[in-house]
Amino acid sequence: MWNIPNIAIPEEFYSSKNNKAIEECVMCGKPLLKDNAPYIIEKAFKNNPISKETELIFEYALCAECQQSTASKLSEESLKNIKMYYELYVDFEKRQAELKDIKNFKLSDWINKCIITGKPLSEYKEFQYGGMFFQNTMLLGNIPFAVGEKAINDMQELISKKTRDFLDGFKEKIIPPGVRDKVPDDFLILM
Ligand SMILES: [Zn+2]
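Above: the input record for the complex with zinc ion. Below: its predicted structure, written as tokens.
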């Protein structure tokens, strides 16, 4: 169940190319800002220890249909394991209740630390965050949240070979060839 508080898409989810809302689904190209179904955006980053800068590794938006068809290709066991992992560490009901009562929503409060470990993202070499959107607004529910590399690595252990292979293929599809080498092997889709 989504609470629709009418929050404009935060800049953290803008396209890095033009600093505007991402307009198309990465898989089918559907225009998302006019579509009548929610969509997700996910971004992955690397903290560069030398320059101290945070570098974008990849970003994409995925429409509801493509998200469903993606999820249907992951093994049931893998999905169950990942769900159990989140449920073990995250009180989603409490989050939902907090989001519902929120007067001034500030995205950074929700994506500045790993939802699993509670540690600030600045402590990790890599991290990812995701959010759910409807047209030009952000939806609040189980996401937005962020995960650091420790949780990403944990989840890697919980997925099957079949799912692993599928995700590798997905990565090939969504990540431009020029930056594919920069994408860590432990990359995981969150949603
Ligand atoms: Zn799509």
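Notes for the reader.
The mean pLDDT is 86.
The pocket of zinc ion is lined by residues 25, 27-28, 30, 63, 65-66 (CB under 6 Å).
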